[in-house]
Amino acid sequence: MRGMDEGRRSRLPVAPLVAVVVLLLLPALYVFSIGPIGALISNGYIKMDSTIGHAIQMTYAPLAFCAIHWPPFESFLVWYMRLWGYDP
User: Fold this and answer.
1) Domain check: are 55 and 76 in the same one?
2) How deeply is 38 buried, as exposed, middle or buried, from its count of CB atoms within 10 A (0-12, 13-18, 19+)?
3) C-alpha to C-alpha distance for 68 and 83, rounded to whole angstroms
4) Total tally of structural domains belonging to the chain
5) According to the model, what pLDDT value does residue 4 have?
């Protein structure tokens, strides 16, 4: 019985750690996903006047808002999107 209890104890701290990592990664994935989306737009795979284009505009509106109100973030986004071949 003692071996089973030790196995359970050693697994318990992993779940909160995974939750924290996921919660930290999701915002980063959101911000960094704008580069590939920009590449798809600049290569003509996504038309901005389409339904998907409008959905993309709504999805990334918070990033645009942050860029407008915080110039260092705008500089980063412009640099990052140009890295992917999109010139905003």
Assistant:
1) yes
2) buried
3) 20
4) 2
5) 56
Report pTM: 0.72
Is residue 80 within 8 Å of 39, Cβ to Cβ? no
79 close to 38: Cβ distance less than 8 angstroms? no
> Mean of the pLDDT values across residues 41-68?
95
Backbone dihedral angles phi then psi of residue 75, each to the nearest 5 degrees: -60, -45
Residues 71, 88 share a domain: yes
Domain encompassing residue 16: 1-31
Tokens of 34: 């704008």
**Do 46 and 53 touch, CB atoms closer than 8 A?**
yes
Residues 37 and 76 placed together within one structural domain of the fold: yes
At residue 53, the pLDDT reads 94
Q: What is the mean pLDDT of the chain?
A: 88
